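Q: Hi! First time asking for a complex rather than a single chain. Here are the components, and I think there are two in total. Is that enough to go on?
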Amino acid sequence: MNRRLRNRLAVTALWGATALTVALLVLIVAFVMQRGLPHVSWSFLTEAPRRSGAEGGIGTTIVSTLYVTACGVLLATPLGLGAAIYLAEYTADGVLARLVRSGTESLAGVPSIIFGLFGFAFFVTTLGLGWSILSGGLTLAAMILPTIIRTAEEALRAVPVPYRHAAQSLGASKWDAIRTVVLPAAAPGIATGVVLGIGRAISETAAVIFTAGVALDMPTSLFDSARTMSVHFYTLTMEGISDDMAYGTAAVLVVTILCINLTAYGLTHRLTRRFR
Amino acid sequence: MTAAPVLQQRAHEAPASGRGPAGLEAEHLRIRYGSQLALAPLTLAIAPGSIHGIIGPAGSGKTSFLRTINLMSVELDGATVDGVLRVDGQDVLDGRVLRDASTLARLRRDVGIVFATPQPLPRSIYENVAYGPRIAGVRDRAQLDAIVEASLRAAHMWDEVSSRLTLPGTSLSGGQQQRLCLARTLALDPRIVLLDEPCSGLDPISTARIEDTLRSLAHRLTFVLVTNSLAQARRVADVTSFFLSGRHVETATTTALFESPSQPDTHAYLTGQFG
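A: Yes, that's all I need. Here is the structure of the assembled complex.
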């Protein structure tokens, strides 16, 4: 085989892989939309479910999803960012740093149902938090922590070393340099990590079904049980309650995730262009 | 067009020292990286208000020496340093400077540095110059405006950039970026400025502008200029040192060094027999 032919084959194969990926995504979204969108209406979005979700809307599950996700992300972001800063800026590549890093990576590979079981055993039972938004949020935080740590650490490491040296040569302490130069420069990357975390959290089923529970009532406190959209979808389908309502829920979930990603791109773009 | 009067009024700065050029004395100064010797014990004095050139081939230890003067080699590059290094009569190697963040910050404000590659921070032109004063605690906008203008004027670039201070520093040309980095250092009203091959990536016109700036500021500041360009040392340095393989070979007035070097190694280097 001559080189030109091989080159053409390679390009075709790569193009094919890309096209197939995009096609798959479009197919899934289109399928969900086609089955689900006809059932989505203003009242579907705002009304509470009736008769276990066979009738009414999904209003309470949307609110529950927001609460549980927000709780998880708000807990995981400061923790993950702190760990990332420590790993990227304050450790030489020693045994401890490698240990923490490989631990983080193992954590990322743990199936979410394990997080669910852990959350149930620890937060729900041992700490006595019960099925609640707090238990669900804590479990999600543990689950998305590796994503946030890893992307934030990479973003911090990608900031050129000369920036830090320039800042420190101008009388900035190491922490001043991190705060005023490194973090702003890494912000788009960090934001991307947080958004990836939000995406994982919002669509997570296994980790929240055992921890946040399945109550359909409107949650009013952190200690209320709350059913998220993905758990609602799972329940509706598994228990054969209503396929129409299930697909309606799925459509809303998919649109939400698309919106979050679009917002994230916009945000990242603005942060990249921002010069304090 | 002096920057000093405005800058000296800075509230956080004790006026007792009466800013102005500071001298530098190294005694048996030795620099190592791990077990690797970067600079054999060196004894050298640099007079206040002079432009002191340091020449020598790569690996001669000249940059290690330069980055030790403001302790960047020790803090950031992992160097081990012993001996004595006095900046304005005070030994900066006695450990207290490195251990105490505010003393170290004061040293960095007294001893500025311009790197070989222009490295504006990812901020506007204005914020690049205002960065050091802001970190030092200057909050007053009018005062910052005055410092920025005076520093950019001192670096001979106010007229070029005064209308676009809000543009990113990286939007400037390479030569302008390097002068911005000089202005950023001058904003701290330093007493010594270290220059690490500041013109190595610049065209002759940009180089000439930087050299003009150095000449116009000499006597108000002490410059230590590490350069790979013999011609540059000859053009601007009052006194020149020659380093070779981590060893200080000799120091003399620039004219004397170039016209009648006392060491055979210096003669060989100057006549292009190596390096």
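A: The longest strand of chain B covers residues 36-46. Let me know if you'd like any chain examined more closely.
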